[in-house]
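Model: You mentioned two targets. I'll fold them one after the other.
Researcher: Yes, keep them separate.
Model: Target one:
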Amino acid sequence: MPSWLKDAWQAFGLRVINLMARQGVAPVEIHFGEHDRESLDWYTVDKRAPNVVFIYGGNWRSGRKEDYRFVADTLTGMGCNVAVPDFPLYPNARFNDILAGVTRAVEHVLSNVDATGPIILMGHSSGAQMAALLALNPALLQSRDRIAAMIGLSGPYDFFPFTEDDHWDLFAPEDHYPASQPVNYVRADAPELYLLHGENDTRVRRGHSRSLMEKQQAAGGLASREVYPGMGHVDAVVSFSRIHRRNNPLIRDIQRFITQRFFDEPPI
């Protein structure tokens, strides 16, 4: 099956799952730019709570913030505020502009949203790649002091040379290719990385998270990794759905990670 068809099928499945979200915390749509995709959905639990910015996947070419309400539903249930931004997509934009859109969204959360808690960057698939770049590359964010951690789900972090033909155009020009690889920005003083991957992921193989973890650790930084037997690429984000999240090891590990590091007492 071609990659574009896989992406379309994944998007359809996520919209079906989203319909089953319990719709607990209603989002407020916030516009942070003039582009029609420069907006985010903001879910507020407590302005002092940790804030998760969730960057969805879709091979840098598909996705809508509305389709990830089920992710926000699970994270707000953990006691977190949540932002889910939209951003430019390929082929209307190349990667530099896509990442710039995500960067503007995170900067807006850091500077303009009425929430004082730490910021956790979280992403799935291509969204995890961008979350990792924002956590690791100090040149991207002006207000990065509040970035406390990055949680990556099934992310590509070490994928050059490219294996998909259109990626040579997506990440062009040629001298920008190295800037797409999170492994090129490992550093000792970066926020902690928590990298989660399905053992059966054939779309983005688990060696990506191992490579980033090992290189970040070698640089003196904090990084850890979990691998889940029987879990595939899409399964990682589907774990957040209402029918999958109960007793799900990935969800349990994310809640443990956030609770241990960012709550003085477990949320009720």
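Model: Target two:
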Amino acid sequence: MGAIDELVAELAKLPGIGRKTAQRLTYHLLHQPKDRMHRLAAALDQVATRIQACPECGNYCEGDRCGVCADPRRDPAVLCVVEDASAVGLVERATGYRGRYLVLGGRLSPLEGVGPDQLRIGLLRQRVAGGEVREVILATNPSLEGEATATFIHQLLSGTGVRVSRLARGLPVGGDLEYIDGITLSHALEARQEVS
């Protein structure tokens, strides 16, 4: 396998990148100055060698702890559980959330061989057992696997005295009922609010 084919094959392994897109990206890079390709390679190497999972929450960080866990102004009693580290950035940019996080590192998916032992469920248990956590917010994706993960965690934490809440689900702003799936519409109907 040649260098071009090898790069195409590696790029095609990225989520959302098929073989055609991988080929376009490869040829785009080949048209760039060599120093741009070297900077990209150096950035990838830096990420591979310097980034690690935060031991307290599982978010990505360069130091001993991530910025959220190291921030003394964050409320350690409120823990937002997300599937992936990318969700931390989304919540941070879109909300005024001031608690801490726990990144599971995926979601339960028996068909893909992902059970509780492949996720940071042990870290979640440890954080809750520490006695500081009063509320766990389940912010898993509204997919079948995300719902199963949220249900599993809810059952796991029942009887611990910790309040377990779930992100609200429903219709997106600017959405059209014609294009909303049945599950989302059902959740929106169940969680309807009185107009004041």
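Researcher: Noted. Anything on target two?
Model: The two ends are 66 Å apart (CA to CA).
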